[in-house]
Amino acid sequence: MKSSTLFSININKKIGIIFLILIFFAMSQTNPALSENRVNLNFKPVAFDLNTVENQLTELMADWEETAFTVDDVLVRHVSYFIKYYTVQHVDKSNKIIRRSEKYLHYIKKTFKKYGIAEEVAFALPFVESGFNTDARSDAGALGMFQFLDGTAIHYGLEIMDNGLDERTNYKKSAVACAKYLRNNRRVFASTVLSIASYHHGTQLVTDVLLNCGDDPGRTFGPIFKSSILGPFSREYIPQCLAAALIYRYLKQNRLVMLPVPGFESKILQAGTSVKSLKKKSPSLYQLNPDLQHATSIYPYAVSNGYILLTKIGKPALTAKMVRTYPDWAKNPDPNPDSGSTKIKGLPKTIHYVVQTHNDLSGISGIFGTSVKVLKFGNRFLVKQDGLHSGDVIKINGMAPTTRVLDGDSIVCGKPGALATREDETLEAFCKRVVKTIRADCASCPWQMGANLSPALIYYWNHDVLGAIQPDTPLAGGLSLKIYSDYRWHKTPVVSQVP
């Protein structure tokens, strides 16, 4: 009886374990946070405690090579507030802006880089100014994504015509004007932060504020924030932009396309509320609102129509659509059936390829026009280990010496800019046009590129720029997409017949 009972218990345990495994498997199929986001197991929500914000701002300033502006407690406090505002209270609207930015951000970053302006600024400034809205108009008459007033727009080369033409709504031309403005003012103030401030306040007003900072050299935020020369929206502008810059870095570091959404409860407070009295009512006050730690009374922010006090916050929910994923249609693109006819000429190149989470050997071999057998032969560790792992480095030998990267700035057979996207052109249409352009323009070349080019292959090398799109998704114009390929047909030369 005892042995029979023990056997029954063991069977029941095994059944129970199997049942739990099946439940988890079912959950992983229906819950995208479990299935598609397993690469984000170390996911951390946006942090806005003072220590973290101070460290992140210090790193940001170092990356910007900012030597004329010092991070102080006042700056940390207000940046902390705006991170809380954008990622908790304002998160739904923030996510709409972030998704809207994807169509424009690649071009803006490229333009800003040309003028030596950091990519965080390329995101933060239009995020704060207009929410990446090309038709945004302010009460003061500023227009477009970069909110230029008439006089400043004309000074920086934007046309405003009586017939209704207004280049302030052209985000590409406005991005150039904005980058020039920031570059010029950075030269004036020797500071990226103060050049951002001048974009909102104007060069003269920033100069007046600095000259009226008393004994302080004007290179810390405290005296600037207290300046009576600035209005409420103006004194909040710098911390707003820096908060947006840190949010951009957070998204990029965590490979997210949107902010995780936390549940929360909050209320709006006006001026005069004592922090000490709030602390008595809520022991977790500083944990939820760290920006209040060094304050005696709350500051009623103009941007949020008062002070937003968090009274409760839940764990942020991370869903599959928030993670920058690789769409199913483009996973491991299949090679063109004719790829076997590609001939290698000259000294071969070797590519060291870092394996991504969506890769398999068959897909990689297809991308590079080789075979699984050749990959395993050149990478003996693949035979020994139990499959392919993200982060593995694979040597791909025997690539054609003509392998190179083409982009919108490349000169293809004497034709510059042939490979930039056109406004609302789909990836599918872009691919067809690129292949047609290369083949037509390079008709006299002994090598023919583009034989194996496909939307999936183009997407493979540009998924960080393109985001989660489909082959028929309209694209922004002027995107400089990278096209890596060794797929050049070696055309048989025509031998003249000797009579």
UniProtKB/TrEMBL annotation:
<protein>
    <submittedName>
        <fullName>Lytic murein transglycosylase</fullName>
    </submittedName>
</protein>
<dbReference type="Pfam" id="PF01464">
    <property type="entry name" value="SLT"/>
</dbReference>
<dbReference type="InterPro" id="IPR023346">
    <property type="entry name" value="Lysozyme-like_dom_sf"/>
</dbReference>
<feature type="domain" description="Transglycosylase SLT">
    <location>
        <begin position="107"/>
        <end position="208"/>
    </location>
</feature>
<comment type="similarity">
    <text>Belongs to the transglycosylase Slt family.</text>
</comment>
<dbReference type="InterPro" id="IPR008258">
    <property type="entry name" value="Transglycosylase_SLT_dom_1"/>
</dbReference>
